[in-house]
Amino acid sequence: MQIAQVIGGYTLGGADLLRRAMGKKKPEEMAQHRGLFTEGAKANGVSEAKAQTLFDLMEKFAGYGFNKSHAAAYALVAYQTAYFKAHHAAAFFAANLGAVMDDTDKVQIFADDIKAHGLTLLAPDINLSNYRFEPVDDRTIRYGLGGIKGTGESAIGAIVRAREEGGPFRDLFDLCLRVDKRIVNRRVIEALVRAGAFDAIDDHRAGLFASVGIALEHAEQVARAAQQVSLFGEPGAEAERPPVPACARWPEQERLAHEKAALGFYLTGHPFRAYEKELRQFARTRLDQLQPRTEPVLLAGIIHGLRTQMSRRGKMAVITLDDGNARVEMTVFNELYEQNRSWLKEDVVLLVEGKVSLDEFSGSLRISADKLYDLATARTRYARRMRITCNGGSSGQKLKELLAPYRNGSCPVSVQYLNKSAVCEIELGPDWKVRLDDGLIQSLSGWLSPDNVNILYQ
Length: 458
Prior knowledge:
The protein has about 450 residues and is of the alpha+beta class. About 45% of the residues lie in helices and about 20% in strands.
């Protein structure tokens, strides 16, 4: 503003209008002010070329610039932050996580940074965690219960107070008996189970999740019994603890899906790990190893996020692909997106054939998708055969029953039979070619074992 006044002949009000125009980066207004500034500078004895150069410098500074005092203040804060991160990393990360605990996207950024620096972020624990994230030692941070979706500060506060007054919780029923059910409701407890907060007591998350309603009802019965007085002035008998339903443990994929629903990201594993060994046979490039190249590359991962936007060619998608090593964004243009939009959802396994190039403007990689495959389609596209290994205890009739729903596919099937003295491999006829759906792989793996069901790729 001072340059505009002294050299360009602007009034103080006019100089403020120039500042606003530069801040908003409006080309029409900037062109008008360039002329005014040049004329005013010439009237003050500055050449037109010098005036143009000065205006260019002001315009560049307006893009992102600080005066010296402002820059010095930022530099001091940056130095202090870097010092704490280098010398008190656990406390630094715990404080930052506590500041952003309501924003799971930012929590995940810090969780990734913690991992990259070799520190440990412990899972939430109903008997050890408090509301906020806390450092345990110089290299370890405890997850705060307040960082779990669907809880809230009042509910976590009630749980912590009950724990401080009566000691650690023994199990789910004990917690329900000791907390205020008006604050700690079913939604809160289910969120804690999903997040794994009870794992140190009982790691059967599916069983706990199915027992939440039963435990809360039992706690209500005990409370009613405590308020009743018998005819003889004695307290009523305490309600007997009901049996809990028997149920199978959540498979790894389902457990992680619940964990993501509660925390906003995967903390104790990654769903791509279940497929990585198989898919790396043909999609060999990890996302953290990407380099610009002229020929197409085949990538694999889980859809971490998907957003759509309008382009001149119609609706396009920007998909974030995650393979547990890195996350990358790629562009899926209108025609390809419309062909596949029915199954493009978060947490779905996706294989992408596309081009990786360098964005000269941002300096980052740009990925443009040419073909998209779901898991079953990719298996069919690249598989050479499926080999099933059996021994004398396996039933041929059972194998037929499991294969039958998936017949008339394109993948040949061979059965490798072995016993103590011999081994042979028999290729089934063309009528027994199958579709390589996930359901077939899971049913065969459940009947035999995952090691006895192998897909051989080109």
